[in-house]
Input
Amino acid sequence: MIMQPGTVDLKQYPEDLSAMTRRWLIPILILLLCVFFALDIFLGSVTISPGDVIKAFTGEADLNTETLIFKFRLPKAFTAILAGIALSLSGLQMQTIFRNPMAGPYVLGVSSGAGLGVALVVLGFSSGFESGNIHSSGSWMIVSAAWAGAGSVMLLIMFISSRVRDIMTILITGMMLASGISAVVSILQYFSNETMLKAYVVWTMGSLGNLSRSQLNVLALSVGAGVLLCLFSVKMLNALLIGENYASSIGLNVRFARVVIFSSTSILAGSVTAFCGPVAFIGIAVPHIVRNLIRTSDHRLLVPGTIFTGAIIMLISDILSQLPGSENVLPVNSVTSLIGIPVVMWLILRRNKNSELF
Amino acid sequence: MNKMLPEILKIKSLLIGYASGKRSMSLLPPLDASANTGELIAIMGRNGIGKSTLLRSVAGLQKPLGGLVLINNEITEGFSRLKYAKTVGYISTDIVRVSHMRVYDLVALGRFPHTNWIGHIDSAADLIIRSAIAKAGLPGFENRLISELSDGERQRTMIARVLAQDTDIMIMDEPMAFLDISGKYGIINLMKELTSGGKTVIFSTHDFNIAVNQADKIWLVTASGIIQGAPEDLNLANAFDCLFDTGLKGFNPEEGISDNNSALFPEIQVEGEDSRIRFQTIKALQRAGFRVTDRLLTLKVKLPSGNSGWILHTDRTITECKTLYDLVRLLKS
Output
C-alpha cells in the first residue's frame, strides 16, 4: 500500500465538529432570532421608545402606538421570518438538486415564473378585479397562480438540466427564461390600465409590510407546508448531493424525490413571491452562509440552520430597510441584493480556485 | 474446493441501449454472461462498445431494452430501488465534488438503504461505517474533506461507501482510471481482498495486464456479444484479437508486450546467467528490433559481470556499454 494511513495530523483534521455544532447551533440561532425579532419591532421609521413598545404589549400604550405595533410592525416581522425561511430553504433545496452553487429561486427564474402567475392574475384575467385590490381579495388565487408559475419554471429548468449537464448552460437558460418572462410581463403591462399597472409595479418592488391578517395566514400555512415537505426530504437531499446516479444506486427513488423537493421549492418560493414580490438573493446567499458557518454537507444540520439563518437575515434586511432613525424606507429588495450580491461574487471568485460544486 | 460457489449474477439475452420515445437503439446483440459468488470479474472491450451501459444495466440504473438480469436466480425486473441497493453497489467514473463533505459523511450515505426516514446513524451503523473506512485502507481518514483527497484515496472512499452499503455484488466502472501504477495495484489488491471475503466484484478496465493477470473471469465485450471465461481460456481461443486492430502489429496478448520476435528481424545471441538482467536485456533487444536466441552467433551480447557493462560482439568489433540505453543506441546505429 502506498499511502500511510494513520499518520493523519489531528490538528489539521479536528475531531468531528458536528457533535458540538449539533448541540449549540439551534439554541444560538434561536437566541439570535429572538434578538432580531425584538429589534425589528423596537426599531422603525417612526421612533417609539422601548418603554412604549413594552407598554403596547401590556395594553398601557396609547392607541396610535398600539396600532403601529400590532397592525404594522408585528405582522411585518412575522412576514420577514416566513419569507426568510421560505426563500432560503428553497434556495438550499435547489442548490442540492441541481448540484449547483448558483441555484436559487431568483437566479433560475423561479421567482420570475411566480411573478408571471401574479401578473396574469393582476393584469390579465381579472379585469373585473377592483383595481389595485391585489392585497385585499383573492389571496388564494394569487398564491395559486404564483405556485403554478414557479412550478412551471422549475419543471422547465429540470427538463433542460436532465439533457444538459453543464451548469453554466443551465444558469444562462434560467436567466434567458427570466428575461423572456419579463418580456411577456411587459406586454401584459402595456395592455393593462393605469391603476392595475401601479399595483403590479408596487408589488415588484418587494415589500414585507402590506400583508393583511388573512394573507399572513395563507402565507404561514403555505410556508409551513413547504417546510414540512423539506424536513421530510432531508435524507433524499443528502443522497442527491452525490449526484442522481449514485443516489439511485444507494436506493433513492429519484423521480419521487424530485416531485417532493420540487413541490416544496415551488410552494416556498411561489408563496413568498406572491405576497412580498420578488425578493432577490436571499435564496442563493443564505445556504452558502450556513454551509460556511457550520461546515457540513449534512442536510440534517443544514435545513434547521438555513431555516433560522434565513429568518434572521431577513429580519436584519427589514431592520436596515427601515433606516432606523430616519423617515425614509428602502425597498427590501435592494437591501437583500446588497447583502446577497457580495456572497455570490465571492462564490464565483472562489470557484476558480477549486472545482467543488458547492 | 469441494463445493462450487453459487451463481450470484446472470444476464440472459440482455439487450442494452437507449430508448427515446418510440425509437430504441441497442448497442449490442443480446448478451449472456454470469458471475459466481466471490469472483473478480473484469469487463474488457474497446472504447465506446457499451461497457458502461452494460454495467449500468446490471446495476439496475438503466432499464434494459430486453432480456433479464438475475440476481441469486431472482429476476430483478420490478425490484424496488431499495431492494436493488441492498444487493448491488455501484461506482461510476463520476467524481463526487461537494464542499464540507467529510469521508465519513460520504461513506455514511452507503447506509442509505438501511436507515430510517431521516437517515439516523445509530451506534451499530457507526461501527459499520468506521470499519468500512478501515477496510478500504483509510483508517483515520474519517474527518478528512473529500475535496482534499488524492485520486486513489477518493476511489477508496467510494469503495468504502459500497462496503458500508453491504451488498453482495460490487460494480465498478473503470476504478483504476487516473491512478498511478501503485494506486492501481492498491485498488486491485483491495478488490481481491473483498472477493476472498465473499463479495463479487465486477469492474471494467482498459488495463490488459491487470485484467489478464488478476481477474478470475473476463467478460470480453465484442461487437458480436460477450465472450466469457478465464483469461487463459480466452487467450487460448485468441479471443483478445478483437481488442486490437488487425493492421496493428507488434502486440502479443499472451505476454502483454510488444512482440518483435518475428522471423523478419536479425538474430542476436545473449550470453549470461543473471535472470533479471537477462530478462530486461532481452526486452531492450526486442525493442531495438532483434530476435534473441541461444544459438552461437557472431553477433552477441554478454551480460554485465563484475565491473564490466554489457559487451557487444560483432564480427569486427567489441564494445562495452554502461547502460542498456547505450546498447540499444549502438545497435540501432
User: Anything to note?
Assistant: The domain at 8-243 of chain B is CATH 3.40.50.300 (Rossmann fold). Chain B touches chain A through 48 residues (CB under 8 Å). Chain B is about 30% helix and 25% strand.
